[in-house]
Amino acid sequence: MWSEATSGKTAGKLAGKPAAGPAAVPRGIRVYAVGDIHGRLDLLDQLLGQIARDAGQGSELLHYLVFLGDYVDRGPDSRLVIERLSCGLPPAFGAVCLRGNHEDTMQGFLSDLRMAPGWLTYGGDATLESYGITAPAADAPMEHLHQAQCMLNNVLPPHHRAFLAGLRNHLTIGDYHFVHAGVRPGVPLDRQEDKDRLWIRDAFLGSRADHGKVVVHGHTIAPEPDLLPNRIGIDTGAYATNRLTALVLEGTERRFLCTV
User: Do 133 and 153 contact (CB within 8 A), yes or no?
Assistant: First the structure.
């Protein structure tokens, strides 16, 4: 786990913050932003336990959970992760779940078979299996893909469907802007295209531009949180590394919780 002690180690990486001063969340709240889960219910439950214990040390604060998307695919428990996020989160927390490109593609598959090959190739097969559906190959005949689509539509619980439909594409709290993949440099945050919010990579990752807020994102895996003056990436590849990360924000403080 990255702890408060790590904050001093990472502070040097934050040199050169925008001239307006250190980014902050409003006084009296603590935000826990959680990176890409990808079907790892075991890690999600571990991290939620850490978050609950951490929040117990600040019981006078308002606590918010912000999930950055990519709940499904690759790991074994996509169905159970959606179940936990849709109706099993601690009641003492305000929670916002953002849309990832994997949820967007899964939702698209429900009505558009053209989404099937891409989705099955990068993890949708594991999601189908979690719902008890034998996944066809990405290059399977159309009738096999159609059968899997029909089966998923039949077994997907209404509250899972509602969860997917209700995901937000972005959120701003104080000086932080939360989004799954990133933002298009040079475009105001309120004019970003959803495709970029869900999929952008190189143009965003390579930019040192001031986006107006510090962007907190997942989508791009790094071995540890990626802290730069204009962005903080917290996808630490949980499905493959067993490392699911949460960024903790309180006032101007930044620290991390992690499953390993």
Answer: no
